[in-house]
Amino acid sequence: MSETLPSIGEMLTASVPMVRTLNLEFIETSAERSVLRLPDQPDYHNHVQGPHAGAMFTLAESASGAIVLAAFGDQLTRAVPLAVRAEIGYKKLAKGAVTATAELGRPIADVVAELDAGGRPEFPVNIVITREDGAASGEMSIIWTLRPNA
């Protein structure tokens, strides 16, 4: 008998209440790229009827978390991934659904080698938030760390 392991999207949806609250959709999740979508939902609109900045931040942060889990899930027995700091820029007005695409900014092997050497590696995840027409409405950079277990 074989067991089917839950996907990263299923794990995050089950364990992170904001992912469920915002109804985030996992389009693609791999160690190379993560793509999440925030559907157009009037309950999460701002004063100009687009997605609220906080909802867009959560979308981008969730996309970064998905790629971190895909890239470093095999390290979870010895380290905890934590966001250290984030910076976001809102570039163009968004209306309708928005999509966040995240990519690692440092090779996985380099991060794991630093962890193997006893360090607490930090690495960037860069995210682009796009509107339905494909225009970038925001850009975010999050610095993550793998904190070794005590």
Write a structural description.
The protein has 150 residues and is of the alpha+beta class. It has a single domain (8-148), classed as Hotdog Thioesterase (Thiol Ester Dehydrase, Chain A). 28% of the residues lie in helices and 34% in strands. The protein has a 6-stranded antiparallel β-sheet with strand order 1-2-4-5-6-3. A hairpin with a 4-residue loop joins strand 1 and strand 2 (34-38). The longest helix has 20 residues, at 53-72. The mean pLDDT is 95.
List the main descriptive attributes of the protein structure presented here.
alpha+beta; Thiol Ester Dehydrase, Chain A; 4 helices; globular; HotDog_dom_sf
Strand line-up of the largest beta sheet: 1-2-4-5-6-3
CATH architecture: Roll
Q: Look up the CATH topology.
A: Thiol Ester Dehydrase, Chain A
Quote the distance from N terminus to C terminus.
36 Å
CATH homologous group name: Hotdog Thioesterase
Care to count the β-strands? 6
How many alpha or pi helices?
4
Strand residues, percent: 25-35%
| Fraction of residues in H or I helices | 25-40%
Overall number of domains: 1
Structural class: alpha+beta
Pfam families: DUF4442
Protein name: Acyl-coenzyme A thioesterase PaaI-like protein
